[in-house]
Write a structure and sequence with these properties.
The protein is α/β, with parallel strands linked by helices. Helix content is about 40%, strand content about 15%. The chain has a four-stranded parallel β-sheet with strand order 1-2-3-4, covered by helices on one side. Strand 1, helix 2 and strand 2 form a beta-alpha-beta unit. The termini are far apart.
């Protein structure tokens, strides 16, 4: 409370959205969506969410990509302190939703994880911690983690890289 009534992004992404996509595209001639071959993506806090969703639902997603994600929010991270404290009651309770903690124990089909972060991101040192995720993933051969640092990009990405990724 009070967030549990209307803020349910986890079940929306993992249950509601795939069901809506499947039902919607099943009624369109010549169009289909294979929700069993889905991937998940997010930016910043949503990037953290994408990593968590993929790691907590083994086999549901073929890959996960995240731009400038918060990777280790239960470890000296102001965002994690604030959000886990408010939503879950404590930072310690947040470890169950910390991508870096989850990658250590992931036990599902092999999954690819891509993290893309800018070297000029103002949150890099205090919030994001992609190196912590990368290091933790090295201990789990089921997770193929690629962490790329984009020279000069900030938290919102450069137009150049956004265009490159869309093509």
């Amino acid at each position: 409370d009070p967030y549990s009534k209307n803020y349910n992004m986890y079940s929306y992404v993992t249950e509601e959205l795939p069901a809506v996509l499947k039902a919607t595209f099943a009624t369109m001639d010549g169009v289909s969506v294979d929700v069993d071959r889905a991937s998940v993506f997010g930016h910043s806090m949503g990037g953290h969410g994408a990593l968590v969703v993929a790691l907590k639902n083994p086999g549901k997603y073929k890959s996960v990509s995240a731009f400038a994600p918060i990777c280790n929010p239960s470890q000296n991270c102001p965002w994690g302190d604030k959000c886990f404290g408010r939503y879950l009651g404590s930072v310690d309770a947040g470890k169950e939703y910390d991508a870096t903690e989850l990658v250590k124990t992931y036990d599902g089909p092999k999954i690819d994880a891509l993290i893309d972060t800018g070297t000029a991101d103002g949150f890099l040192e205090t919030q994001l911690a992609p190196a912590a995720f990368e290091e933790a993933a090295k201990s789990n051969n089921l997770v193929n983690a690629t962490v790329r640092m984009q020279e000069g990009d900030d938290h919102s990405r450069s137009e150049e890289h956004t265009s490159e990724l869309q093509s």
